[in-house]
């Protein structure tokens, strides 16, 4: 069971950025979360979703879309946990 | 839309997260030094994750300082590099933007430093490696004016040697 | 001057990412703050923590770090300022009664500011036995500081950079990347950011050096000063730049500039990687899952409501689900969407919107699943 930050980056105000990460083992149960790093108290800053692609017989690519809901650029961190 | 307050995390009281019998065990070793040498003055067993082994660094680079844990056969089990354990010079800073610090001699060479090393069951001895005593290092560090060909090492060791060897648990 | 001139009031864990035995622990001590000035010290400590959070790679490794603030009161404010100093500098001539007996003009250098190193180390150990790093913030607006087993800096503008640089030495075994003496002729040093080896295949960070980068990349002509010439390669290029461990020649550092050479510059990649490597083992491990119900709600048919829940530790990996508490047929009942707010450096607020897509009222549990909890 390993957990780590897979990516960091900045999402411009009011826009959506997409990260993709490839060559994951389809046998792994991977859970993704995304959090803002830039403090922005008072209102929700981001929402995100994850899409999955079977890139080959043996690899998975995860696509993580992060939408910045705020009026300021937000640095974000994409984290994963492999549960098995 | 009305926002409804759902409160702070309603978790059960947090325990330490690490059962006591699996907490990382280490030795806190406190060293004291003066111009003449270095001494191990305190040993304490603590629960703390020690730094990872630095043997890869010391195998390539031996002109510095490190702590070594050895077993009863004298074999090294663990090494930890220490940068500047002896305060033989003082780093003097400048508020000017872009300025580089500079080093100046200290008036008195004495002090303490501490090291956390893992509590390895087979480790019986601790050895401290350095490039000469603190007094020798201070003398070499400020020996000659710049641009005169003053070198470090011409009159000093090119690699570290044991300055101290002690039992982890005193007899 | 000394322990009779103050007392340790107590220790507060101001950054809590889990058990101290598993994390990298920084201890921040007060010097020269009177009992009535503790709020000022708290502000200064928080400012340093924020600075560290904004400095890579500490930011990327933030969840590996705990910070402890030790409130130490002193009889007087500030630090000793001798009227004259060996380097020609002058001071107010004030002698203060403080716990760690900090003074400017140590070793005859006006800006060298420190106190009783052994006492500071012992005080930090009493708070966190085996702490990984300790700094003392001195209540003075005059610029100064020092390194050693404990780092010291004043509250002058940019003096906190001294603290960050000194952490590089004491906690992460980084060498200085500037000169002071002529030529290093000893062997290869063990510190990860300096090397004497100029062979492309075997130099210390050989795998990081592009084939197109000349080696050595830049020398210090005359071996009497650090070169002021611009870098011959683009900024951020890793190579072999002369100067290190207080010698101008015969020893090299990885990039043209780095915080181990110039305060305030970012750490170069080799130094940054060495810091991250040292911190990595302290990151929280998988420790869950921990599950539970955070809130309960009810929605009329077709209704949407939003709940917010706060003070969630920013290092936790938290998932949210919603679960109807009574059967609802036919078809799906609840849809939810999670939005995230970084309410502060340490805490997250989750905003959970829940929509009832059915034709009847639905009651539900709002549940959390924490898959990494420190």
What is the approximate shape of chain C? flat
Distance, first to last CA of chain A: 6 Å
Tell me the CATH topology of chain A: Jelly Rolls
Question: Biggest β-sheet of chain C: count, sense, barrel?
Answer: 6 strands, mixed
Spans of at least 5 consecutive residues with low confidence of chain A: none
Keywords for this entry:
heterotrimer, B: 171 residues, mainly beta, four-stranded antiparallel sheet, three-stranded antiparallel sheet, 11 strands, 39% strand, extended, C: 374 residues, alpha/beta, Collagenase (Catalytic Domain), Jelly Rolls, 3 domains, six-stranded mixed sheet, three-stranded mixed sheet, 4 helices, 15 strands
Task: Describe this structure as you would to a colleague.
The complex is a heterotrimer of chains A (84), B (171) and C (374). With 84 residues, chain A is mainly β. Chain A has a single domain (2-82), classed as Jelly Rolls (Sandwich). Chain A is 0% helix and 63% strand. Chain A has strands at residues 2-11, 16-24, 30-36, 46-54, 60-68, 74-82. Chain B has one domain (23-167). Chain B is 8% helix and 39% strand. In chain B, the strands form 3 sheets. Chain B has a 4-stranded antiparallel β-sheet. In chain B, strand 4 (66-70) and strand 5 (76-81) form a beta hairpin. Chain B is extended and about 80 Å long. With 374 residues, chain C is an alpha/beta fold. Chain C has 3 domains: 3-170, Collagenase (Catalytic Domain), CATH 3.40.390.10; 173-262, no CATH class; 290-372, Jelly Rolls (Sandwich). Chain C is 13% helix and 30% strand. Chain C is built from 4 helices and 15 strands. In chain C, the strands form 4 sheets. A 6-stranded mixed β-sheet of chain C has the order 1-3-2-4-6-5, sandwiched between helices. In chain C, strands 7-9-8 form a 3-stranded mixed β-sheet, with no helix packed on it. A 3-stranded antiparallel β-sheet of chain C has the order 10-15-12, with no helix packed on it. Chain C starts with 5 loop residues before the first strand and ends with a strand. At the B-C interface, strand 1, strand 2, strand 3, helix 1 and strand 6 of B face helix 2, strand 5, helix 3, strand 7 and strand 9 of C.
């Amino acid at each position: 069971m390993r957990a780590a930050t897979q990516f960091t980056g900045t999402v411009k105000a009011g826009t959506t950025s997409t990260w993709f990460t490839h060559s994951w083992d389809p046998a792994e149960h991977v859970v993704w979360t995304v959090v803002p790093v830039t403090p922005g108290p008072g209102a929700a800053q981001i929402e995100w979703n994850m899409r999955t692609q079977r890139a080959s017989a043996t690899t998975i690519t995860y696509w993580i879309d992060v939408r910045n809901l705020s009026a300021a650029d937000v640095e974000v961190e994409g984290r994963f946990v492999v549960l098995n | 839309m009305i926002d409804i307050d759902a409160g702070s995390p309603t978790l059960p009281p947090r325990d330490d997260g690490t059962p006591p019998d699996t907490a990382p065990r280490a030795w806190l070793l406190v060293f004291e030094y003066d111009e003449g040498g270095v001494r191990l003055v305190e040993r304490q067993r603590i629960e703390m994750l020690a730094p990872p082994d630095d043997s890869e660094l010391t195998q390539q680079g031996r002109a510095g300082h490190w702590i070594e844990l050895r077993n009863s056969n004298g074999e090294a089990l663990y090494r930890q590099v220490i940068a500047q354990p002896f305060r033989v010079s003082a780093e003097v800073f400048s508020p000017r933007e872009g300025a580089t610090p500079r080093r100046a001699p200290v008036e008195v060479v004495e002090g303490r430093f501490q090291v956390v090393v893992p509590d390895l069951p087979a480790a019986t001895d601790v050895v401290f490696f350095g490039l000469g005593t603190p007094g020798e290092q201070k003398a070499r560090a400020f020996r000659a004016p710049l641009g005169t060909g003053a070198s470090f090492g011409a009159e000093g060791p090119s690699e570290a040697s044991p300055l101290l060897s002690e039992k982890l648990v005193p007899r | 001057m000394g322990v009779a001139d103050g007392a340790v009031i107590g220790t507060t864990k101001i950054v809590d990412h889990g058990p101290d035995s598993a994390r990298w622990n920084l201890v921040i001590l007060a010097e020269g703050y009177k009992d009535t000035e503790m709020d000022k010290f708290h502000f200064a400590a928080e400012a340093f923590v924020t600075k560290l959070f904004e400095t890579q790679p500490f930011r990327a490794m933030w969840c590996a770090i705990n910070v402890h603030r030790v409130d130490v009161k002193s009889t007087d404010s500030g630090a000793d300022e001798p009227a004259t100093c060996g380097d020609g500098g002058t001071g107010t001539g004030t002698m203060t009664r403080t716990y760690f007996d900090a003074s400017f003009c140590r070793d005859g250098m006006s800006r060298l500011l420190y106190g009783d190193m052994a006492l500071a180390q012992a005080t930090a150990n009493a708070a966190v036995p085996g702490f990984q790093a300790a700094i003392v913030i001195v209540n003075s607006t005059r610029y100064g500081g020092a390194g050693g087993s404990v780092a010291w800096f004043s509250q002058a503008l940019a003096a906190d950079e001294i603290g960050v640089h000194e952490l590089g030495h004491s906690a992460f075994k980084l060498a200085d990347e500037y000169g002071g003496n002529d030529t290093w002729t000893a062997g290869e040093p063990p510190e990860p950011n300096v090397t004497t080896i100029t062979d492309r295949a075997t130099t210390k960070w050989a795998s990081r050096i592009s084939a197109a980068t000349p080696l050595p990349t830049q020398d210090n002509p005359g071996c009497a000063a650090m070169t002021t010439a611009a870098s011959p390669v683009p900024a951020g290029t890793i190579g072999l730049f002369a100067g290190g461990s207080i010698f101008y020649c015969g020893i090299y550092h990885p990039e043209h500039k780095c915080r181990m050479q110039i305060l305030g510059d970012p750490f170069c990649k080799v130094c940054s990687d060495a810091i991250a490597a040292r911190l990595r083992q302290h990151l929280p491990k998988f420790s869950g899952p921990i599950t539970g119900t955070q809130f309960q709600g009810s929605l009329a048919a077709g209704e949407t409501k939003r709940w917010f829940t706060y003070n969630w530790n920013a290092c936790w990996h938290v998932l949210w689900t919603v679960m109807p508490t009574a059967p609802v047929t036919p078809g799906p009942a609840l849809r939810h969407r999670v939005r995230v707010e970084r309410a502060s450096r340490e805490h997250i607020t989750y905003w959970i919107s829940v929509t009832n897509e059915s034709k009847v009222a639905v009651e539900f549990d709002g549940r959390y699943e924490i898959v990494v909890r420190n």
